[in-house]
Amino acid sequence: MFMQASTSLALREIVRFIRQKNRVIGAMATPVLFWFLLGSGVGRSLVAPGFRERTDYLTYFFPGIVLLIILFTAIFSTVSVIEDRREGFLQGVLVAPDGRSAILFGKLIGGTLLAVFQALVVVLLAPYSDYHPDARVLFYLIAIISILAVGLTALGFLIAWPMDSTQGFHALINLFFVPLWFLSGALFPSAGAAEWIRTLMRLNPLSYGHEALQGLLATRPGMPLPADLSHDFSIVCASTLLLVMACAFQVSRRS
Amino acid sequence: MADSSLFAVKADGVGYSYGRKRVLDNISFELEEGKMFCILGPNGSGKTTLFKIISTIFALQDGEISVAGRSLRQFPTPVRRKLGVLFQNPAVDMKLTVRENLRHHGNLYGLDAHDLENRINKNLEALGVEDRGGEMVESLSGGLRRRVEIAKVLLTRPSILLMDEPTTGLDPAIRSELWSILSGIRNSRKLSVLFTTHLLEEAEPADEILLLDQGRSVASGKVAELRSGLGKEYVRLGTYQPKKLAARIRKEGEIEVTAEPASVKVVPTRGLAAPLAIKLWREYNKEVTSVTLCRPTLEDLFLQKTGRHWSSTPGEI
User: Fold this and answer.
1) How many domains does chain A have?
2) Which domain holds residue A144?
3) Are B215 and B24 in contact (CB under 8 A)?
4) Do A102 and B108 touch (CB under 8 A)?
């Protein structure tokens, strides 16, 4: 019954997403546009340590954009928690027998499916940035994207749950999510950064997600998988698990 | 505790605070099975807080509540299965169709898919919205949204229907239509009903009421009994100059006269109100715009218990 409730809520997320066309634009078109403009704009102007030889910024920036899509989708699907609360829909769920955990898992499943779908659509652009993922790499890509999506959706949920205004949520997002993304290696490699930034990047779990994405995308057919992959996966998994547990604790509390 | 199973809802000494602010204090009441119970109170009286506690949205702080004989504190999940909850703001998804909303609700309660479709059809028909199934909820009027919500809530066959200000935002015609639909459903499904309202006239049909003011219970019981405790029938004279008229009528003797905003209330201390009404109508014909023969109302009850007029309490916009 719990699965039926969660699935129904997840399905609702997807139906709502499809019916609100502007959300598709917000979560997918915006990052792709960023990538194209910023990537082409910077081009080969910067050659930083850690860049592969003859790499232009369009290529460097690509894994970061995949990460940004997951991030945006997570934000959009958790901002709906606040809308649901304000419009009254959430109350109806909260009085259902397992409503509290069902809404959490519904949002997590729904947000993750949307993020994976959108990230995969963008991964189809990978060959244009000199990446050529094969089936094996694609499998690991889907895995890391899914785990990242669960984690980031959980983080958004954790922030959105106690809030009653979307403006407040966006303010926190700018303060919290965006620096998290900046400091993941999405925009610049840690190799050339100031020492304190490098420390922050090492502490940022998202860096390991970015590293995994970058490493996987750079794996050409026939090459072995990146050496750090299991290390990256375990850090991302552990962070995700912690966030989901924090969410579960939060929804179980009644005022 | 054996006798508590006779009650759909039984509350005992319920209290609630937001931080240091006490918003409910020592509230007790009983809703008998199959009856209709009204929590009546002006804005800020604590009725919505009480509603949220009973509907399991808020945790129960002080006191005890049992629903169909089970403790709400110990068994919130089985209690939730018994309840059908209608909130002030419709708990429907505007971006989904009527049917999708109902289907979704059934899934939340784990209803079997085939059974669910049957129930959806039956309920949409019972609420007269069977032809709206494919429409987006956001395209429906306020009254129709309410009906859809009732159809939704009844899908799980609750034994107790909880409603928080169910007619808020609806115009009077739709309001009375909704009440007649609800009373039909109540009879056919043997539902116990508990609702809150700040509208005195909506409380009248209830079997019992609980009158709340500033988080405290000021009166409770059967409407008729509460009324009979309030004393006699009286006469209300409509007038443009209540003070002046009251001063003149006071000279009559054997009556109590009160000047109110656009009327004068005259209570006979001896004899009946009806002959007094005729007498006053004849004698003060020029100053009086209307004569009404009144039974004490819940408004009088509120005045007697709190010393304030119902209309002077902050209204809900």
Assistant:
1) 1
2) 2-252
3) yes
4) yes
A19 in contact with B, Cβ within 8 Å: yes
Residues from chain A that touch B103, judged by Cβ atoms under 8 A, are 8
Task: Examine the pLDDT at B1 and tell me if it is beyond 50.
Answer: no
Q: Residue A162 above 60 pLDDT?
A: yes
Nearest CA in chain B to A5: B108
Range of the domain at B81: 2-227
Nearest to A12 among B57, B93, B152 (CB): B93
B108–A99 C-beta distance less than 8 A: yes
Picking from A46-60, A76-90, A231-245, B294-308, which range would have the lowest pLDDT averaged per residue? Answer: A46-60
Which residue out of A89, A94, A100, A104 would a mutagenesis test of the B interface target, given it has the greatest number of B Cβ atoms within 10 Å? Answer: A89
Looking at the structure, tell me whether residues B119 and B43 fall in a common domain: yes
Q: Could you say which of B191, B208, B227 is where a domain stops?
A: B227
Q: Does A50 touch chain B (CB under 8 A)?
A: no
Query: Is there a single domain that holds both residue B147 and residue B206?
Result: yes
Q: Is residue B316 part of a domain?
A: no
Cα–Cα distance, B256 to B250 (Å, whole number) = 7
What is the rounded average pLDDT for all residues in chain A?
Answer: 89
Task: Give CA–CA dist B182/B127, Å, rounded.
Answer: 9
Residue B81 sits in the same domain as residue B185: yes
d(CA B279, CA B268) in angstroms, rounded, equals 12
Distance CA B3, CA A191 (A): 74
For residue B108, give the nearest of A5, A19, A87 by CB distance: A5
Q: Which of A80-89, B160-169, B304-313 has the lowest mean pLDDT?
A: B304-313
Sign of CA dihedral B83, B87, B93, B98: positive
- Close Cβ partners of B164 (under 8 Å, ≥ 6 residues apart): B47, B48, B51, B55, B86, B87, B88, B195, B196
In angstroms, what CA-CA distances link B235 with B5, B257, B282, B308?
44, 10, 14, 20
Query: Scanning the structure block, which residue is given the tokens 């604590």?
Result: B46
Q: What is this structure's pTM? A: 0.83
Indicate whether B190 and B280 sit together in one domain: no
Can you give the CATH number for the domain in which B258 is found?
3.30.70
Contacts 24+ apart (CB under 8 A), A199-208: A204/A180, A205/A151, A205/A235, A205/A236, A205/A239, A206/A67, A206/A148, A206/A180, A206/A181, A207/A183, A208/A232, A208/A235, A208/A236
Of the candidates A4, A88, A255, which has its C-beta nearest B58's C-beta?
A255
B269 touches chain A (CB under 8 A): no
3-state secondary structure of B161: strand
Residues B21, B119 within the same domain: yes
Total number of domains constituting chain B? 2
